[in-house]
Amino acid sequence: MVDLVRDPRWGRVMESIGGEDPYLGQVFAKSMIKAHEEEGIISCVKHFAAYGAVEAGRDYNTVDMSQREFRQYYMPAYKEAIDSGAEMVMTSFNIVNGIPATVNKWLLRDLLRKEFEFKGIVISDYSAIEETIEHGVSKDKKDAAYKAITAGVDIDMMSNTYSNNLKQLVEEKMISEEIIDEAVLRILKLKNKLGLFENPYKNLDSDMEKRILLSEENLKKARELTAKTFVLLKNENNVLPLNKKEKVALIGPYADNIEILGSWSMFSDKSKITTLKEAFENKIGRENVSYAKGSEILEEKEINQILQADGRNIVHIENEEEMLESYIKEAIEVAKQADTIVLTIGEYYRQSGEACSRSNIEIPNIQKRLLKELSKLNKKIVAVIFNGRPIILKDIAERVDSILEVWLPGTEGANAIADVLFGDVNPTGKLTMSFPQVTGQCPIYYNHYNTGRPHKSNTRYVSRYQDIPTESYYPFGYGLSYSKFTYSSLKLSSKTLTEDSKIIVSVKIKNESDVVGEEVVQLYIQDLVATVVRPVKELKAFKKVLIQPNEEKEVTFEINEEMLKFWNENLEFNSEEGEFKVFIGTNSEDTLSDIFTLTK
């Protein structure tokens, strides 16, 4: 799923690999597809196209944008996936230029097949062909089948519009047999490439399944990789890592909870999940861990909204207020006996994922209530946040000493969290999306345009809100470490770039701590003057660098003319002469900068 996402209200943020940045989407798409290919697995890239731009962050909603915006930001990751060998493309639910993607000839035949030279299979998303009737562009299922097959969709997922109508469309000479042959041949070619005619059950091996699933080697790897995804958002007075000899109060609805896998994990074996309570006890001993639930994840009315939407039976909690009070009372007593409180809070797992758009992306009030009472104890508090999207953390951050963002971390999530909190692993993760200060800022993203009246002061007539800041709370690329990295000495090998030359930009990074760490060094570029408005900065490269305690390293990047190209006023992909600003830093805001000139 390579959709560019700028609005965290959209539940499918959870699936996105590149977040709000097109370059990041390209890098991750290429990496994933090549990895699948090495294992003999083909990749299907989705959702084509621009599904991440749904209005108001509401799933399945309308998408409308200019061709320049479409090509500049939403197309790169799909194109990279196709160029990297993706064999399938899944159409999106939304409209593109007013026409649903699944029946959009320009999108599927002109752009995808001709311009992108895609030779593989196009498959609809779940019942998307039939849904063009609701869109109001197809009269009935027969009409929908006609429009989808002529637009270039090879496989109809789930709606049966093809199986029930294509034969009749051929018999009535509305479509030719050749157009059916075209779709079928692409499918047969792929099956042949995968060797499925020789062995239809290729890779289905029950003995291998027993050896691989939940094997010791794979669990170890999952634990290592999961820890790398965590993002340390706050660590005031170096409260983290925790001392393994001190007593910890583990409190919150996620402290002893196996629901840490997130959406699309409905077939998982929950009996194999380690809880955070178990992971802590294994790490520092039962005698050093006390536990209290402290709160439910949601109030009764909130959980029932979700259960009803899922077609499940609603629940009724007897004396809900009394129960919540008893939870908090127990949590306070447990916390009083500990040196540090580890508070595990976040979204309910069915609040992120498909059909999980939210108008308010804050931590639920009953969990905030728990934190408010615990903060009165004046003890050190470490918040561990479980969620599938950027959420509002301003209120949380003001009451805690440290915040570790762990998302919905999977099978080995609890063990990985314990590894990071107790210092066996130094966090390295960086945010792929900006975290808003309030929901009302959404959509919010770092690579925005300036206006003619950018918000640089508190004067009235500039682009701002009256009641809140315009900047994010945690910016794109943000993430702390137990190491302390300082940047200095940004240098350019030349202040002039030509079409045939390169500029080497270097920066020195020092680890001013006693902890070995990895830093993700980020390079951004801004086109200062162009024929169309350009973003305030764009990520163009990044490197992860291991730096020993008190060591200083020089990190270099190469800038070339290709990195400066964009879709200009004539919708041509090219660069323009002029001045450019280069930034290098630990995130999109905290950077060093210099200026160079492109001449052609």
Describe this structure in words.
The chain is of the alpha/beta class and 600 residues long. It has 16 helices and 21 strands. The protein has helices at 22-38, 67-74, 76-83, 105-115, 128-135, 141-151, 161-171, 177-193, 206-212, 216-229, 276-284, 300-309, 320-336, 365-375, 394-397, 413-421; strands at 44-48, 88-91, 95-96, 99-100, 121-123, 231-235, 248-251, 289-292, 340-346, 380-386, 402-405, 485-492, 496-497, 503-511, 517-527, 538-547, 552-559, 566-567, 573-574, 578-585, 591-598. A hairpin with a 2-residue loop joins strand 3 and strand 4.
Considering the chains and any ligands shown, give keywords for the structure.
single chain, alpha/beta, six-stranded mixed β-sheet, five-stranded mixed β-sheet, 16 helices, 29% helix, globular
Largest pleated sheet: 6 strands, mixed
Q: Given the C-alpha coordinates, what overall shape results?
A: globular
- Figure out the total of helices: 16
Low-pLDDT segments:
none
What percent of residues adopt helix (DSSP H or I)? 25-40%
Strand neighbour order, sheet with most strands: 6-11-10-9-7-8
